Amino acid sequence: MTTIAFTHGRxxxxxxxxxxxxxxxxxxxxxxxxxxxxPKDAQVVDLAGRYLVPGFIDTxxxxxxxxxxxxxxxxxxxRRIAAAHRKYGTTGMLxxxxxxxxxxxxxxxxxxREAIAQKVPGVLGVHLEGPYLNAARKxxxxxxKFHTPDAGELDLVASLGNDGITLVTLAPERxxxxxxxxxxxxxxxxxxxxxxxxxxxxxxxFAHGITGVTHLFNAMTPMNSREPGAVGAALENADAWCGLIxxxxxxxxxxxRVSIAARPRGKMMLVTDAMPPVGGEREAFSxxxxxMICRDGQCTTADGTLAGSALDMASAVRNxxxxxxxPLDEACRMxxxxxxxxxxxxxxxxxxxxxxxxxxVVLDEDxxxxxxxxxxxx
Length: 378
Description:
Layout lengths: L3 E4 L2 E4 L2 E3 L2 E6 L2 E7 L7 E4 L4 E4 L1 E6 L1 E2 L2 E2 L6 H12 L3 E9 L3 H16 L7 E5 L21 H7 L7 E6 L6 H9 L3 E4 L6 H8 L3 E4 L15 H8 L4 E4 L8 H10 L5 E3 L13 E4 L2 E6 L2 E3 L12 H10 L5 H7 L2 H6 L17 E4 L5 E5 L5
Parallel strand pairs: 1-6, 2-7, 8-11, 11-12, 12-13, 13-14, 14-15, 15-16, 16-17
Antiparallel strand pairs: 1-4, 2-3, 4-5, 7-21, 9-10, 18-19, 19-20, 21-22
Helix pairs in contact: 1-2, 5-6, 8-9
């Protein structure tokens, strides 16, 4: 069996960045992280002083490589989206379906199952963002798609089962506690988003199966002096994971710094909310038949409504360091370890440690991606 050894770099471990280590990979997994030089018979990857970090995991990817999942809910569509984001260090992702018809949902779930069966690199499951949202906080979603699911539709939502991860973003005020609990009991990860929930409603939903918040601050009730809103409930809950879009457009940098400081370490994670132009060649794309434009890193409708982002995970990490002032090791954990924990894969992804899958990224001094490995394959 071939042993691959990553050496002569700055390796992100649980203690931070360390030098004089060799990361040994066999059969797609990390088998050892050892001090000193690698074994003489190993195939050496000389990092030349660069950073070796866990592969990034993005739980909200609407598109990439000029593909929107809603338009191409196929294995090939998933393959192209994942390949586009891999260039930016994303080695694991949840392709995200924006609110759509039930038949499109079915196709996206079936394509995800098949992509995982075919071992399409980077596809971990599916994120259904809607259509169980609140029209008062619709964002760019089409409210004509919004509805309350019946039992059969909930069976569809949970149908991926153990074949992959299913994340659903919904407005919790539209569901009773028993339905949330039943969905969570079937292995579905539930996040609150596009919600007009009060502080009390979201706090109650956290007690009945919701474990995360989709793009904190955006498309939800804000935190005010006498009404904490959904934002207040999320910031207060020590157990909830919160996704952050760090692109300079969705949330003010100061707001992000304050919110990160207010939460327990390990519960804030980076997401992109990426649209087709990421890793693609076109600035414009269509959603619900309406043209969206991405310019200077910002995607909007003609009236200026934010329509996802043109953000990639490597840029999110850089922004977290350069705009928010966080250390690089923490920014990288927010892009790898913490999202892995959120989706229940923290025992196999998101860390450089023995037993973990060898999903790895090399960053240079400018924090640009110089190489990626998924299960030990470049």
